[in-house]
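Hey, resending since the last one bounced:
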Amino acid sequence: MTTSKKLDLSNTNLDSTGEFSTPSSSSSSSSVGKGSPAGVTDSEYAPPADFKRRSDALTWSMALTNGTAIVANLIMIVAIMFWVPCGGGGSSSSSKQCSQHSWFSLALSPIILLYLHDLLIAVVHMTMDNPALLNKTSDGQDRWGPLAKMAFEFQEHHVEVWKILRWPAWYQGSDSMGPSAVMLMQAALMQYYMGWSMIAYCWWTPVIAVLGQHAHRHCHTPPAQRHPVVSILSQIGVINTPARHALHHQTLDCSYAILNGWSNPLVDYVRTRTWLPLHALSLNWIPVMFALFLVLPFVYYAVCVGTVNVLLYA
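The structure tokens again:
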């Protein structure tokens, strides 16, 4: 027997233009009628006046955790570039070929990784938005353990959107460094045991992971406060636009991609196929999420090498 802890997800901070509303004060909230294009009701956007004295504030332990993850990423990048031999320290010719391929694919890697990371984030987002992950057992314990905490943070964001701006931009950007470090460790093992060059992958993975965090923050930042460089990246399609991300907060059943939206067509197609057991509220997305996280470096290498071979030898 389980009990369910539910959030009221009916409130967002969309205004009638499809943009996210600008915070004014912690005691004010505006309403958008059901007849408006947004069709939702605004929630209080500005943070409470005392939030810095509460658990929402950045602590030294949180900063130390993310700082450690940043250092781990730097160590893995240096290791993959200089210390991890291709194929378990094979011949010098193997290492030379490995390096040459990496430099050639360096320009191609960000394009491939921008799509793959967007796809991974979209699947994680859709999985964590499932209210079933907030279910508790009869004795009040989280049925899904650590996943429940992640799911609550994702779903709480729909109610208290202001919280995405409660921490400094550097901290939020580094919040993805933990998963990035794990992916780089996997890349190092692939390079060592399989002889696959992962140098370009290790360069771009942390950068794009951080970019994804800033893309989401950008979508919820008032227009006057948006960084001009990030705004340019949004305008040319490298990262998501506020209007596209607003569709997710308006309906909560589409536009799950956060980085740039490139994977939205694929994800929306899969989740709406009645012959697949992968609708948006299916718990089957949990193994898909973990599987995608594990195979992403392999997919990257297959696509990258395949594209390079076509360009060079077709």
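Confidence is low (pLDDT under 50) at residues 1-55, 89-97.

Sorry for the duplicate.
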